[in-house]
Amino acid sequence: MGLWVALGACAIALQFPWAQRLEGQAQTILLRLRGPVTPPDSIVILAIDEESFAQGEFYQSDPEQFSHLEPLQAWPWQRSAYAIAIEKLMDAGAQAVALDILLVDPSVYGWEDDDRLQAVLNEYGDRVVLATSYDRAVTAAGVLTQQLQPLYDPASFNLGFINVPVDVDQRIRHLPDATLANLAQAAGQTTEPISFAAATLNAAGIPFPEPKGNQIHFYGPANTFPQVSFWNVLESDNWEIHLANGTFQDKLVLIGPTAPSLQDIKLTPTSEAMPGVELHGHTVATLMEDRAIAPLLPPGPGQGVAIGIVLGGIALGLGYGMTRPLIRPLGFAGAALLWGGMAYGLLVQADIQIPVTIPMAVLGMGGMGYTAAGALRDRMEQQLVRRTLERYVSPPVVAEILDQPRDYNHLIGGKRLPAAVLFSDIRGFSNLSFHLPAEQLVNLLNTYLDAMVKAILAHRGTIDKFIGDAVMAEFGSPVSQGAKADMLNAIRAGLAMRRSLTHLREKLKAAGNPPLFHGIGISYGDVIAGNIGSEQRMEYTVIGDTVNVASRIESLTKRLGTDFLITVAAYELVQNDIQVIDMGCHRLAGREAEETQVYSVVGFDDGDQQLYEQVHTDLRQHLGFTASVVPTSEPVS
User: Fold this and answer.
1) For 231-263, what is each residue's pLDDT tens digit?
2) Residue 175 near residue 195 (C-beta atoms within 8 A)
3) In this structure, which of 117, 193, 299, 379 has its CB flanked by the most CB atoms within 10 Å?
4) What's the rounded Cα separation, in Å, for the pair 563 and 585?
């Protein structure tokens, strides 16, 4: 997440073109979601449109009937058309008239045509704005920047520059002041150029403050401002209607081309085809209502650092505050949407812009990154669980644990649960360790333990620990199949250990090694299970009285001359399934205040009984028991 935040902050700070393009597209989306808003009603566009162009055909078809349309007979129109329009608009009460057409060459209709317009400018020019522009041309000496000046007396009108800045995505968003200043410097001019919009407001005598931002407030798409077709000014009937309706009374009238054939079409955030004169209308309205859009922070390194800090704080809060795998990506998605909503609210309600696309992308990628990292962490945690548990339990049990919707800490955290605890110990191991060489002893012990572990794991047992030659295991921890099933698994494991040791004993005899016998004790009851140890070494184990009893009755097997004992609590769970011999009640070390009844396990069927008798005959001989010591009661079913 930190990497995404750093990359996003750098992109914002360094203002890469692709980043500007993305942010421009985001602003376009936000403005279009907002929809049109009511513009000031003091701006009217007198449109040089296709309908006005068509009037020339009427004049050409009948010059006498349509003599009033003579100035529109062909493009470019006669300058007298503009003179008539300015004169009539002023008489109609217009505050100012701004002509968005470059009149830099003499009229093709003769000097009298230009004189007609000059006469009107002499009378009304203080409230008239003519367009001027900086033109850039590539020459052998380099790029030449020069101003295109109207050919009329400069003292008779106001001058307004129509140059507009174009962003990297070819859309126009910014006020022209900075661009005009750069062009004036390139042209070698020292006077400050005035934009077409500012000149219009100055001509109308409308004061406006220094813009608080540098972007145009677009009130809507094309046709947001009311438009009147130019030819209506020349046609007397239509003109009378406009006079009666006060169409131009106290208005700022912008005259300019809207016909697509004149190719004065601009890309803006709210329109794919906005006539240039309408663009100036939005600029005029922006200045007049002081609604220029301003960035919350100036673009550059400061903005990048500030946004990076905010995004980092959000990421840390969500990353540490939402730990559930499904909730965290939803939190990041919600934060991204909230950021977009905040950007929308600031833009629409306060004319303030903040970066949108990159912060939302950072939060979105952060959510995906956290999700991927969480999945990877869960996978690693699962592998840790698997590696940890495979040391203790069989692969099927491991798979069952991993399929459960629990985390690692839940599985190995301390908890109380019922379980069957098994202890097993080799009889006479101390004597063996004294007589056998170390290497042979270790090999013998490993062979024995391998056989015992396989028997335990085959019946869903959990290997708890090895204590020298002793084995401790439990059934029902960490996953239980139910009290009876766990106890039956423990019995089956004990019987499998008996069978495995019988086969191993025959192999040891054939190889000239001493025979091995063992004792097994199983008790059933509550245990405390968990990962216990120090920071340097931890192990999953169970503790409690049930564990102590299992250890004690395993030791009791030697005194009673049997190999497999269980407690009465264990027997009561499986008494209808196995055969046992009642070995009576005995006092156990540490539990002298009460006697514990134990049973010697014979098995499940006749095959187990035959093995039981064989093992016990061999065991009695090995231990030197006399016949009178071994219980002679029949197995209990």
Assistant:
1) 999 999 999 999 999 999 999 999 999 999 999
2) yes
3) 117
4) 17
